[in-house]
Specification:
Elements (H helix, E strand, L loop, with lengths): L1 H11 L4 H22 L7 H6 L2 E5 L4 E4 L8 H11 L1 E2 L2 E2 L5 E2 L1 H4 L11 E3 L2 E10 L1 H8 L4 H14 L8 E2 L5 E2 L25 E6 L7 E13 L9 E2 L7 H7 L1 H8 L3
Antiparallel strand pairs: 1-2, 3-4, 5-12, 6-7, 7-11, 8-9, 10-11
Helix pairs in contact: 2-8, 2-9
């Protein structure tokens, strides 16, 4: 009787190999939960950051929860590292004012195929994407799609055949209505155009050939080059390091104790 109870002790208290691994898996998931909770203060970057929190390893004795390493080239992974460690003139891991073009136009960075050579040196077109609410705020309306309909109708009345921007079934982009430069306000006095100027509406085709389309996003495109010599052009004050992961790591004993896992 006593021998059998002794044999079962490890399983009862999750001390057998399978139980220890299951407990470490619970620890890993708890770390992810606490880490994600800290990121709630983020806005547009929250999704990319949270999706980058990874459970890299779970064994009987330990677990590893981390962000992608510096070798990762994906856009979301890079954004997550910038949020966690900060971004400044010295790259990720520093915090100071810097010229964004130093990184946008560097051949060493992702997306270098989009860098072209021009009279003033390298340049590239940078897209800024917005959802419906953000586009509406920029355009000063609750119905950004209505703005594009008005633009398209006005151009059609002038004899131009236009449509909202969409992607055809052949994978070809069809450019149509764009927001005129007179719409909206400049974010900064040194900016060349308003935030709304040139905004386009992307719509994805749905259903069969005769099906309709649904708006997927709104975007504005700006050209990053060294042609603009204003000292404030493409200048960022830097990205403050959030250190969410470091915060969780510093409280891990407290977190596990409160959870009852240990």
């Amino acid at each position: 009787m006593y021998t059998r109870i002794a044999d079962l002790k490890d399983k009862i208290f999750d001390l057998d190999p399978q139980g220890r691994r299951a407990r470490m898996s619970r620890v890993a998931n708890l770390i992810v939960f606490e880490w994600t909770k800290l990121a709630r203060e983020l806005n547009t970057t929250r999704s990319a950051y949270v999706q980058s929190i990874q459970i890299a390893r779970v064994t009987e004795t330990d677990c590893v929860v981390q962000l992608p390493g510096s070798e990762s080239q994906g856009k979301s992974a890079m954004l997550a590292r910038i949020i966690e460690f900060g971004m400044g003139a010295g790259g990720i891991g520093t915090y100071s004012s810097y010229d964004v073009r130093k990184f946008l136009l560097s051949k060493r960075n992702p997306g270098t195929s989009r860098i072209h050579d021009g009279p003033s040196g390298p340049y590239r077109h940078v897209n800024f994407d917005y959802d419906k609410a953000q586009a509406g705020s920029i355009l000063g309306t609750g119905s950004p799609g209505g703005v594009f309909s008005q633009i398209a109708n006005a151009r059609t009345n002038q004899g131009e055949k236009v449509s909202a921007l969409s992607t055809s079934s052949e994978g070809r982009t069809i450019w149509g209505a764009r927001v005129p430069a007179s719409r909206g306000q400049k974010l900064r006095p040194h900016h060349i155009s308003t935030q709304a100027a040139g905004m386009v509406q992307f719509a994805a085709k749905s259903g069969s050939k005769g099906g309709g389309s649904a708006t997927s996003r709104f975007s504005t495109f700006r050209t990053a080059s060294y042609a603009n010599t204003d000292p404030k052009a493409w200048r960022s004050k830097g990205v403050r390091p959030r250190g969410y992961g470091a915060d969780v790591a510093g409280r891990i004993s407290e977190i596990l104790s409160q959870s009852g896992i240990i």
